[in-house]
Amino acid sequence: MRIRCYLLITLLPFTSIMAGAPTETGTMPDPRIQEAIALMNGFAEHTGLTSGQPRRRYLWTDAFAVCNYLGLARTTGKEDYAGLALQLVDQVHHTLGRHRDDERRRGWISGLDEADGERHPTRGGLRIGKALPERGPDEPLDERLEWDRDGQYFHYLTKWMHALDQVSRTTQQPGFNTWARELARSAFDAFTYRPAPHLGPRRMAWKMSIDLTRMLVPSMGQHDPLDGYITALQLSTTAAALAKPAAGPDLEGVTGDYAAMIRQSEWATADPLGLGGLLVDAWRVQQLIQQGAQPDVPLLDRLFEGALIGLQQYARGDELHLPARYRLAFRELGLAIGLHALERLQRVIEQGTPRTTASPRLRAQVQELMQHLPLRDAIETFWRDPANQRSDTWTEHRDINEVMLATSLAPDGFLMLLPPTNKTPID
């Protein structure tokens, strides 16, 4: 009953938004959209979102799935997909925001009582959703086993912040953005620390315990501070522009600390998932600037530089020539999604609106990056092949592979930041 009433109330403003949206009524959707719909319908069925199957919630995958459902709602004009997005948000909060069924602790991982936990489901962070319980305080680190153990990842939390913010931007409901900012504040407080007085900017842990009280992996992810900065900037931009006042924490101090952390950072990587993330970040920054954000750090030039170095290195490798059993689809699809973001960014820069004036250097960087666009088509073609989807590396990671393939086929739900004031989105 709680979910049904919650969806009805929250979808009321969404109905008015969708009334002016393009629909496919009376026509067959684009084949790519049809395939994305089939993938997302299957995901809802076999992960227990719309069926009696055991619930299989995993934070990274579910963040992309929420965005996919929002995008499909806009593309098809069918509000049922928006309902699935909201239902998935509810399931994630009531599964990954609470302690595991196989341990002694019960209730919200934040330690809040039931009523306050319902009002603030993200205040204690969200579990990853891994199969194995987290490592105990007295257990030694096993690097291989740690990949399968639960806990909290910062880069998963930022993906969920983005998903919640996309819900607010779609529905014009500030509560989702408030939850995202509460999560941003909690994540910053738990994952960042000062190594010692006067020894430079803050550092970050890569993995924390479920209750955020101890580090499980203390090393810092290469792009985590960058992800934290851009996500905090996005959430603050949304909160300032929503028609209804958004409660919750102010992230100005958080953004400033992340800015200090990234001023001297190097972001070049040959990892396809990381490369895709840099390109998505560049597109997010461009959209936020168009929506009035003023980043404290010059980002686009450095994002393009890191992506270009990495793409040149990745293109020289032989990974895309290997058979499916030696490849990880979701990592490659992360790059494909990033190349979709690059294509949208290049189009906006070429159109040259007042807030998209690009220097000759930026234009040259984008044009050089665009030479790698065929990688996107090669990745999608390979993983759309049913023969390659029968490989162990596909079936063992079925949920994340299918959802990220759907994102690559229909990327706007994830990539497009609808202006919170309900104006025409950037295209």
Task: Spell out the blueprint of helices and strands.
Elements: H1 2-19, H2 31-46, H3 59-76, H4 79-96, H5 114-119, H6 143-146, E1 152-153, H7 154-171, H8 174-191, E2 192-193, E3 203-204, E4 207-208, E5 215-217, H9 224-241, H10 252-262, H11 272-290, H12 300-316, H13 329-351, H14 360-370, H15 374-384, H16 392-395, H17 398-409, H18 412-415
Helix pairs in contact: 1-4, 2-3, 2-17, 3-4, 3-7, 3-17, 7-8, 7-9, 8-9, 9-10, 9-11, 11-12, 11-13, 12-14, 13-14, 13-15, 13-17
Summarize model confidence as the mean pLDDT. 90
Report the end-to-end length measured between terminal Cα atoms.
Answer: 38 Å
Given helix and strand content, the structural type is mainly alpha
* Individual helix count: 18
Largest beta sheet, briefly? 3 strands, antiparallel
Number of strand elements: 5
Helix-strand pattern: HHHHHHEHHEEEEHHHHHHHHHH
Given as residue ranges, the uncertain stretches (5+ residues, pLDDT < 50) are 1-26, 423-427
Could you explain the architecture of this structure?
This protein has 3 domains: 1-96, no CATH class; 127-134 and 146-264; 266-427, no CATH class. The strands form 2 sheets. It has a 3-stranded antiparallel sheet. The model is unreliable at 1-26 and 423-427 (pLDDT under 50). It has helices at 2-19, 31-46, 59-76, 79-96, 114-119, 143-146, 154-171, 174-191, 224-241, 252-262, 272-290, 300-316, 329-351, 360-370, 374-384, 392-395, 398-409, 412-415; strands at 152-153, 192-193, 203-204, 207-208, 215-217. 58% of the residues lie in helices and 3% in strands. The longest helix is centred in the C-terminal third of the chain and has 23 residues, at 329-351. The chain is mainly α.
